[in-house]
Design brief:
Blueprint: H1 3-6, E1 18-25, H2 29-40, E2 45-49, E3 62-63, H3 65-73, H4 77-82, E4 91-94, E5 104-107, E6 123-124, H5 127-135, E7 141-144, E8 146-153, E9 158-164, E10 170-180, H6 187-192, E11 196-211, H7 215-218, E12 225-228, E13 231-237, E14 240-247, H8 257-265, E15 273-287, E16 291-292, E17 295-297, E18 303-304, H9 312-332, H10 343-377, H11 398-401, E19 457-461, H12 464-468, E20 477-481, H13 484-489, E21 497-500, E22 506-510, H14 519-528
Helix pairs in contact: 2-5, 2-9, 9-10
């Protein structure tokens, strides 16, 4: 039933059971991260998840450096890292079977070792290990087992109908805004009638979670993924546990999963204890609209990215990092509603870029496996090593992770648009141009430029006294001193400045002395009230 049809069954202004500023639909990593971000901003939220508990399946596993920068800001990075695999697991290995030697491999850049472009290292950690950490990052109410079934818009709010799966009890919640992070089969998106573009469903897969002693084939050559001709094997936790990822067989309901896993391993003397089996569909799409009035889509609800390269969850985390400060600004009154109109033009192009990269990553994996198949068909000596140029591209996508550029009215470019990110760019070149992520530099031994950012705008300048005269109490703003040697790196003169948004992207840049005493105030008005300055 569409929203206009639901309106016939609902009277605006009727009594509700609860009121919050933001209703978050979906309790996966994206929804839970949005809850933590909004909690830091002092925004009241309710998160509803139709499952009775957090996901028991590993699902998404890779947190890139940009996502870990977000978690560093939330004070969660150290905990996540402690529970994750060691960096040497940040690698994919290609083998004929798990017990063979590699015929190709590739490091996960930013996961397998620290990179100079970020203060953090990415993490390889299973989603069921990540979610409890995110759940504990805020005290806001969470209701498991409650499914959103209806939505109706009012002039200043949205009313959602929630149904408890166990008791059947219904609850009406009024929210100023709804943030839908309820997955690729999003109920909210379907209620809104928002279409998608892209290939759609690419295939059905099965994840088999099992226990087995596979150390003799993996301990000396650790990896996050072992891709074989019989499916991919993934270590799940530092202390043990495995998953087998394979296209779903036609007779899945009758499958003898322990026998199938043993045969895929290529060794009958390994005891396999199957714990859980999950069937799922690989989707590939981006929604045509990220927003419908007071309802905003994020994560897989807005874009389904195939898993090759570990991009999907990270794109969703960047969605809510972009969105939550804007919601907070509108709800707290220091930004106009027009600021939310910048969410789609900033995030939708990034979703399309990541979708294309994920498809390219999948093609690279197939290329490596096809070349190996040709070697075997030609009876070449095993284990032959494939010498191909793909390994410096697969997972080497820092240009897409750290180099994304936002183009919207919430970025002041002084008439010159930042360069577009090419779909083939894998390198990241730090720049302090508006629209880009603020580059990382160590200001002190353990203090990064990114550590100056938070639930506020940040002005970095060699001359804070001059700019403090322009500060206005209306906006959350911190002014930080920038050493002259760092200012020189970014082409700033002795009175220049960078204005950085709460999501870490540069909003404005002044190479030297501001043109007027109202420069900073005018910039903040323009950025936080697009179209109404």
């Amino acid at each position: 039933m569409a929203l206009d049809e639901l309106a016939d069954h609902y009277s605006p202004g009727q009594e509700v059971d609860a009121e919050v500023e933001v209703l978050i639909v979906g309790g996966g990593p994206v929804g839970l991260t949005a809850r933590a971000l909004l909690d830091r901003w002092g925004v009241s939220t309710l998160l509803v998840e139709k499952r009775r508990e957090l996901s028991p399946f590993p699902r998404s596993r890779l947190l890139n450096v940009r996502s870990m920068e977000i978690y560093r800001q939330l004070g969660l990075a150290a905990t996540i890292t402690d529970r994750a695999f060691a960096p040497e697991y940040g690698r994919i290995r290609f083998r004929d079977t798990l017990y063979d030697r590699d015929f190709a491999s590739a490091g996960m850049v930013g996961i397998n070792a620290q990179i100079p472009e970020s203060p953090v290292i990415g993490a390889l950690t299973s989603q069921d290990r990540l979610e409890p950490t995110l759940l504990g990052a805020a005290d806001a109410l969470v209701r498991f087992g409650d499914e959103l079934t209806d939505l109706v818009e009012e002039t200043e709010s949205v009313v959602a109908l929630l149904v408890d799966h166990e008791s059947g009890a219904q609850t009406r919640v009024r929210a100023r805004y709804v943030l839908a992070a309820d997955g690729a089969n999003s109920t909210v998106r379907q209620r809104l009638g928002i279409d998608t573009t892209g290939p759609g469903a690419l295939g059905s897969f099965t994840t088999v979670v099992f226990d087995a002693d596979l150390d003799r084939w993996s301990a000396q050559q650790p990896a996050g993924v072992y891709a074989t001709a019989h499916g991919s094997f993934l270590p799940l936790y530092p202390e043990g546990g495995w998953a087998w990822l394979v296209p779903t067989p036609e007779d899945a309901a009758l499958a003898d999963w322990p026998d199938l896993v043993s045969r895929a391993l290529g060794s009958a003397d390994v005891r396999v204890d199957v714990l859980r089996v999950q069937h799922w569909v690989v989707n590939a799409f981006v929604v045509e609209r990220f927003r419908h009035s007071r309802i905003l889509l994020a994560g897989d609800a807005a874009h389904a990215i195939p898993p090759a390269g570990g991009l999907g969850m990270n794109v969703g985390l960047a969605d809510v990092h972009n969105l939550c400060w804007k919601l907070a600004g509108v709800l707290h009154g220091w930004a106009g509603p027009g600021l939310l109109e910048t969410y789609e033009p900033e995030r939708q192009p990034i979703a399309h870029q990541n979708l294309r990269q994920a498809v390219a990553n999948a093609q690279i994996m197939v290329q490596a496996q096809n070349r190996r198949r040709e070697q075997l068909q030609n009876s070449e000596a095993a284990p032959a090593q494939i010498e191909v140029p793909w390994s410096d591209r697969y997972f080497a996508q820092l240009g897409l992770v750290l180099g994304i550029t936002y183009h919207s009215d919430a970025v002041l470019t002084n008439g010159s648009a930042p360069p577009e990110l090419s779909d083939t760019d894998t390198d990241y070149v730090p720049t302090a141009e508006p629209g880009h992520r603020m580059p990382h530099l160590w200001l002190k031994d353990t203090h990064s430029t990114l550590d100056a950012l938070g639930e506020w705008f940040t002005l970095l300048t060699p001359d804070p006294a001059h700019w403090e005269q322009q500060a206005a109490a209306r906006w959350p703003l911190h002014i930080e001193t920038l050493a002259s040697e760092h200012a020189d790196l970014w082409g700033l003169g002795p009175h220049g400045a960078l204005l950085i948004r709460p999501d870490g992207h540069i909003a404005a840049r002044w190479p030297d002395r501001p043109p007027s005493d109202a420069t900073l105030r005018d910039a903040l008005i323009t950025i936080t009230n697009p179209g109404h300055s």
